[in-house]
Design goal:
5 strands, single chain, OB fold (Dihydrolipoamide Acetyltransferase, E2P), 3 helices, alpha+beta
Length: 141
């Protein structure tokens, strides 16, 4: 079996393991292994193939790490409008109870409502900031 075939098999195995585990960095390692296979096709020595795999694999992993590090952190699911369709919607709060909660009708059901931190409970229209279980955290509009 030729050296390039071994490198291609290793690259394929890395891709297969990535598909099972979901570890994106394994794809970058597979790129390094594929680069070593190409260098073997071009007639590079075994040492040069290893160096190629190490440099290309390390560079792609490092670049991926830098790109992912600069991406803004995702919001928690309870406050993310892309995950929870209730975030950003409005509800009408008629009156607040002494314990700082209220009951509102929203989407055909009765929900418990609490004021977001830093706000004072007052009647009127409120925007949903977060959903915690069956409780809506709202802010005055």
């Amino acid at each position: 079996m030729s050296e390039s075939t071994i490198w291609w098999l290793l690259a394929g195995a890395a891709v297969a393991v990535e598909l099972v585990t979901g570890t994106f960095y394994l794809l970058m390692i597979a790129v390094g292994l594929a680069a070593a296979a190409i260098s073997a096709h071009l007639g590079a020595s075994t040492a040069m193939q290893l160096v190629t795999a190490a440099i290309v694999g390390s560079a792609t992993v490092g670049l991926t790490h830098l790109i992912r590090g600069r991406r803004p952190e995702a919001l928690p699911a309870g406050t993310n409008p892309d995950v929870n369709m209730d975030v950003g919607e409005t509800v009408q709060v008629d009156d607040w109870q002494a314990d700082g909660t209220a009951l509102v009708r929203y989407r055909g059901a009765q929900w418990a409502v609490v004021q977001a931190a830093g706000g004072t409970p007052s009647a009127g229209a409120h925007r949903i900031r977060e959903v915690i279980g069956s409780k809506l955290v709202v802010e005055k509009i």
